[in-house]
Every structure is written in C-alpha cells, then in structure tokens.
Amino acid sequence: MDETAAIFWTFAGVIATLVAILVVAKNGRHDAKYVFTHFESNSGWPDGWSFMVGLLHAGYATSTTGMIISPHSMCEEVQKPSVQVPRAIVATVVLNTIAGLLFLIPLVFVLPDIQGLISLASGQPMPTIIKSAVGSPGGAFGLLVPILVLAIICGIGCTTAASRCTWAFARDGAIPGSKWWMEINGKLDVPFNAMMLSMVVQIILGLINFGSSAAFNAFTSVGVICLTASYATPIAISMFRGRSQIRGGSFYLGTAGVFCNVVAVAWSALAIPLFCMPTVIPVTTTTVNYAPVVFVAATAISAVWYWVWGHKNYAGPPVQGEHDHSA
C-alpha cells in the first residue's frame, strides 16, 4: 500500500514541480543547448572522471532497489516471487529513471548560478533552485512538500526492508541472538525486535552526522559499495559455473541473460573502485572518502566472525521446501 502511494505521489510531485518551475521561471530559462550539452566540473577532477564520480548518487538510487526487494527482505511476502520480484526490480529502475529525468531536466532549465549553489552552507541546493524559480519562499516550500513526504515513505520502505533482512538472517542463524531477533510479534504480525534493531542502528548512524559529516558520508557511501559487491558476487559465481543452476527458471532470459550478467559484472568492477574515490580534489580531512575504510573494516569483521563462529553455525538460507518461510 505504501509503495503504491509512493508511485502516485512521486509522479504527482514531479508533474507539479515541472509545471510550476517552468511556467513561473522568475529568473528566466536556459536554452536546450545549455541543458543537454553544457558540462561544468568544480570537483578538480578531469571532466570525464568527474562525470563518473558523480554517478554515486544515481548508483545509490538504483542499487537500493535490489536491497528493498531482495530475497532477504520482502520477496518472501510476495506471491510467485521468482517472477514478480525480477519484474518489480526492472520496473522500479525504469520508473525511477523516467521520474528522475522528468524531475531533473526542468530544474536544469531554471538552474541559478552554480557557484552560489556550491557555496551554500546547508549543502542542499534543491530548496534554493526551486525558490529561485518560483520567486517565493512559500511556493518553494509547497513544491518541496512532495519531496519531504516521499522521503518519509522511502524511509519507511528502507526500515521495513532492513528489518526483514535482519529477520531472515536471524532465522537462518547468521547473527548473534538469532532466536530473539527472529521472533514475530503476534499482535502486529511483524518482526518487531528486528525492526527495533534496524531503527536503533539508523538513529546511531544519524547521530554521527552531528559529530563528523565525513564519517557520516562514509557510512552512507559505503552502502553503494556493499550493495554493488553483493550483487556482483553471485552473478560472477553463476557465470563461472556456466549459469547451470538458473536454466529453466521462471525469469530465465537465455542469451540476453548472459549479456546482462556481463554488463553487471563489468559495471561493478568499475563502480566499486570508482565510489571509493573522493568527490573533490585536492583532498582535505573533510572531503576525504572514508567509505573504503568502512568497507574493508566491515569485510574483515564479517570474515573473522564467519571463521570464528559462522562456519560452525550458519549453513546458508534453507532451500525451498525445507520449511515455511512466511513471516
């Protein structure tokens, strides 16, 4: 229900913003040549590399799609997940791409001075861009409301997915205290303990930003790296084994699937080191990208934990038919 509301709310907000800022455009509009051909880099990197580093935001927006609908989160609550989940992932990426372009292109048409946006103390250019376009703080706030509501809906979705991931790993005995985290609340019919754990972790991560924005950015950026690695690893293993275990599957694409796998692994091989780079140079203590440090530390801790405890207690998720997985 929340996801359906989010879809309609997203496109309604996009259309409202598109019409308002293009029609009003208090400070004028750029021409199409500026919108589609002008490139300006203020990162210190060469233009091509600056463009690649700038893909981090798009990478996060698309990579989290698989996390939210992944087998360890929501697919166990979906009918015919072997068909519906792949369709949902593909459809979500397509819809997000369309909505994103419809939202960003009008903003570029009314984009104010870029140097002024870069120097904003808040680091958030969106309110300033919309305010400049409509010429009214009240109007800008009204157009920001759909974005704020969408952020809340997105937060609910991420919390739900994180709690289901925690529950699934606990059910499979992969984390300490599994018996407690896998409990289902009888009244609410949700993994309440796992949900509370997810929310506490989110709160702690949010508090980090009050102490160090660089550390906070490291934890948010490392999510893209971890998700990309988690997608590329099973794909690479499947390709190494000749994709023998997925033949005849409900969403088997044949030769097209091989092409998709090659592109996915190639992109991951580029994206992982790319997202470890600092976004601007020269690098300072506030602009350095600590995401690789967090990634290596998390990988090392996971490896040690598996060597000490996991290989004796965790055999991987149960295959279909071993027991009922319904939440």
Automatic annotation (TrEMBL):
Localisation: Membrane
Main location: membrane
InterPro entries found in the cross-reference section: AA/rel_permease1
A single GO molecular function term of this UniProt record: transmembrane transporter activity
GO cellular component terms given for this protein: membrane
UniProt keywords, alphabetically: Membrane, Transmembrane, Transmembrane helix, Transport
UniProt topology in membrane: Multi-pass membrane protein
Coiled coil location: none
Membrane-traversing stretches: 6-25, 88-111, 143-169, 190-208, 214-237, 249-270, 290-309
PANTHER family: AMINO-ACID PERMEASE BAT1, TRANSPORTER, PUTATIVE (EUROFUNG)-RELATED
The protein's name in its UniProt record: Amino-acid permease
Species annotation: Tolypocladium capitatum
